[in-house]
Description:
Rossmann fold; nine-stranded mixed β-sheet; 2 domains; Dihydrodipicolinate Reductase, domain 2; binds nicotinamide-adenine-dinucleotide; 17% strand; alpha/beta
Amino acid sequence: MKTSLSLSRISRRQFITTTATAIAAPTIIPASALGANGRPAPSERITMGVLGWGMQGPSNTGSFMRESDCQVVATCNIDKKHLEASVNEINKKYKNQDCKTYHDYREMMARTDIDAVMLAVPDHWHALIATEAARNKKDIYGEKPLARTIAEQQAIVRAVQSNKCIWQTGSWQRSERNFHYAAEIVRNGLIGKVTKVEVGLPSGHHDFAGTGKPLLQKLAQLPEKVDDLAKVVPGTPAWEVAVTQPPPELDYDFWIGPSKMEPYIQARSHMNWRWNYNTGGGQLLDWIGHHCDIGHWGLGNDDTIGPLEVEGSGEFPAKDALWNTCTRYRITCKYPNDITMIIAGGHPDIRDGTKWIGTDGWVWVNRGNAFESSHKEWEDTRSLPEEQRKVRLPFTKGGHWRNFLDSVKTRQPTVTPVEVAHHSALPGHLGLIAMLAGRKIKWDAKNERILDDAETGKWLTRNYRAPWKLG
Ligand SMILES: NC(=O)c1ccc[n+]([C@@H]2O[C@H](COP(=O)([O-])OP(=O)(O)OC[C@H]3O[C@@H](n4cnc5c(N)ncnc54)[C@H](O)[C@@H]3O)[C@@H](O)[C@H]2O)c1
């Protein structure tokens, strides 16, 4: 079991201490090893390997590199350009050439001198990489949603628990004051008994990578004049234009990994993999780990209680369309104690963000420090009198990334441990299954299985492409 830092690190620290005592001339120990400039000595820093350098990887890594007791020592990527950009950025920050590069995450995970890893890879890779990290006793900062399927999420939870790893999820809204304040108001019963929670998420598709636009410009030249990538299907001239050779810097076979092999289409690789169910889960699963996570926090449903019934309807492009994820959706989850949660995208009556409605009032919260409520004084003060804070939700000191590093040292849970990430994403996964099945599903929250419906039960998992296996 880990105590403070891993055994290998403790040995390393002991080695440095012993050496420093035994050798008379202190000049042979580099100044940096003694913690020059107020920085903890290298032997006292949390060593980290980072995976993924697209939309989220650089910002997570930047946050960790700003913490003086963390040292990023390795970076892994299957895209040579991303790998190069990451190692350059890391070495520039530390003014050295020490960061090692890896193509295969298994080699990086095998390093015993790495304490922690930051995972910012597409959703279809979460389970394999996170379980490999856990088996290698790494503490893990992993992105939301926990995984692409419920079975994969369960595998991550088991691996993290059995290896006693610290886990922090990228659900960073928990480390923002307005979300914490709103959830505490609800948890302390100030809006009375909660009857409804509204979770408003984005709809449609968004061309994050900017790779959809140039493709659409080409498609506009075709006689069919295709104006939406959700309308492009195999066997059409538009599809022929979309499919190209992968660029030489990208190991596309590795990138597809455990998912079904598909021809390379730039507009659904980096960043835009979200809009293809082979690799992502659309807006619903991209955002469930944020606003539903906050909804559960207020309800106190973090790691024990799940929805009991889930039904929903959505608008889906053709299954094999280039962008095929649901564009508009409305999901109703029934929780114990007569609480209903509505999760919706593209329905104007459900506002973006999280709103709890109770018998004595309501609270709504969103990004950008947004907060509204039925009680004007809550909006004015933005803090609860101490006597009303009978339930105190943990608040991170110094931010979400700092919270992870503190937990690595203290071995206390982070503000979004793995069980929380699992439960936050469950309503999204179950909602998607209910929409695809076109019927209400009953969820056995204790045993985590779909009741009386063998057909939909199959969608809790997915087939892996050989040779990949979830261990
Ligand atoms: N917390 C947040 O606010 C937030 C915001 C954006 C994205 N995310 C999450 O971060 C994760 C990454 O999303 P993104 O938008 O940055 O994706 P992206 O496509 O922009 O970047 C993914 C990176 O992972 C690399 N990669 C892919 N497979 C790999 C493998 N097997 N081994 C090593 N590297 C691999 C890619 O080359 C790329 O550098 C997703 O889970 C996403 O949901 C979270």
